[in-house]
Amino acid sequence: MASGQCYLSRLGILLLLMVIHPSTFGWAGGFQVYPIRVYLNASESSTLMTVKNDSAERLRLQVSVMAWDQNKQGEMILNPTDDIIFYPTLLTVNPGDQRNLRVGSHTKEVSREKSYRIFVEELPPTDKLQSSGVRFLTKVSIPIFLQPRKLETKGVIDQLSLHKGELSFDIKNDGNVHIQPREIRVKGTSPDGGVQLERKIPGWYVLSGGLREYRIEVPKPDCLKIKDLKVEFEINEKPVNESYSVAPDACGR
Questions:
Q1: What's the pLDDT at 2?
Q2: Which of 92, 209, 211, 215 has the most CB atoms around it within 10 Å of its CB?
Q3: pTM metric for this prediction
């Protein structure tokens, strides 16, 4: 590579940290993007986002948008979309300065929330003085939600079971907007009430109409002692829970 220069890229999905440490902006390397979530609807079809350069160097950034879906493991599925309008697509931000992004939608009113991701990606500098050595380039992802007029939030726990030493359950989103459990708690107790299994699982988005599968291996000595299982979490401070009585043969032979 010429002059020993190289560029390394990393995808900073900062919202994973925001779930644990909520804030009003997404921070990546030398720049911030805020807000960290964008909500659009029929009456407010556009808004401004701000990119602030906290570094000592001029930054070149590229902006793009993709439609966002998920598989049953919660992994992102991204597809091209024309639903979201944004400007500019390229911007330069001087040290200590900030630039606005206009984001909007021309999609008509929806009955079920649609979800997207806007990406702000750092490009390699053109200035040779800034290009020496190894440089990490950052790509920030911010969710955009195009929401219906009437919001219905409903999360349920489904298919809770313990079979052959594997605890499994699904979190289904039966509402018309996304849900975001902060933490999912699993507890298995023996007939005398003793705790044989306890897990705390970080939550994440479950998009409207979506489903997230969870699978937990339970060691056989613990599994044999479990009589009752309970899974619970909160959505907007409202509890959601489900209980299950374990069958005698649930741990296999």
A1: 41
A2: 211
A3: 0.83
